Amino acid sequence: MPRSRRNLLAYLALLTLVVTAAAGLGRHLARPVMTPVRPGAGERLERQTRALIDEAIADVERHPRNAAARGTLGLVYEANDLWHAALATYRQAAVLDPSDVAWRYRMAVTLHGVARTGEAIRHLTRLTETHPTHAPAWHRLGAWRLEQGDLGGAKRAFEAAATHAPERGAGLSGVGQVQLRRGRYAEAAATLERALALEPDAQRTHYLLGRAYAGAGRDAEAAPHLALGAGAAMQPLPDRNDERLLELIANAPAQVRRARWWLEREQPTDALPLLAAAVSERAEDTTLRCEYARACVRAGALDQAETMITALLLSAPDESCSHLALAECRIAQERWDEALTAANQAITHAPRHAGARLARGRALHALGQSPLAGTTLLTARVIDPDDPEIALALGQTLLDIGQADVARTHLTALAEVGPGRVDLLTRGAAALLDAGDPATATRLLDVATLTAPGDERITRLRARLEAPE
Fold this sequence. Notes:
CATH architecture of the domain at 46-229: Alpha Horseshoe
Helix content: over 70%
Largest sheet: none
């Protein structure tokens, strides 16, 4: 090829790059520069929340035309329950980058959060028209239409969610809920069984399946599912920003709510940093500091627990929770005499505190005073009949003193009061096996299997059941 032609082609290629870059720069510069949204003057913000907002605003001011920076500021607001500021910020992010579905989706979520459900539904409807494969949008649309009583619209949205997220059970669970509303119990049961096969730990689906079984007259099958899912709410399909929202929680109430969510799922280690951050904001809150100390014990962080408990006993010596935290720490250390003393102190300050009586009963049992432990734990169970840890401790103690029939009643109750607590169910089943009651042990293992079908503790106990005598 002649040199002149090569030079011409190179010049044209360079010119194309320059024009493309200029067009891109032009589009970028054409984006409006908008003042970042700030919290209302009446908002009372904690120090950590304020620092997180200031950092996000500073990033927006450094990159005023960047949609991602603006969207991150919106996430900070949403994570900390500043719904109106979040909505306004997401609107700005959507203007800066109309092609990014994420900010339009979060706009709909915040519209619902400020009780503008009609607008939220219209917004998501438009979004699903332009982005028909966005499963989280379809799922939320189904949930909101269900709230409004639009069963046909809800079913279509849930079916779309199931189509575009076939590996998740949430869409099918929504379809099953619509079928339940229509009284189609057998149909709903079949749908919900498919949903549960995809996500065996979905508590809401367990509850719906229990209702479907009950409606179909299958009461024996319904009971464990109803117990396991009692009180569970529908969970949305996660989008790409859900994990970021959790990381951006900075206000103490939201941190405590999330920490308790982890504690309910037997994951105290995940709860600790959230509780620690909340305590740093509310150091004067004795109840919160006690909760943190007790979570440290559950997570095995006994040095942290000791530090917090020492401070609690100095600053709040008359609070029952200070002594209860100490008792639980001493139980974890197997320092039974000290545990008993601390539990007695907790009861002195709060005679109707079931947790304090549970700690006392455990200490007495370990010290060989099982009859007295049984009396203490029975009182605790009367005070709080729904605490599964008390039911387990009482059942184990009664087995030790030869009251197997009464013990069986309390251990069987674990299936109703603690259906999601695999640790307690397997310990109860082990105690029953040791006492020669494989039938009741099997029932507890069946309930545990609904939550954790592959759990090694369940597998080992089932192997014991199947082993020859």
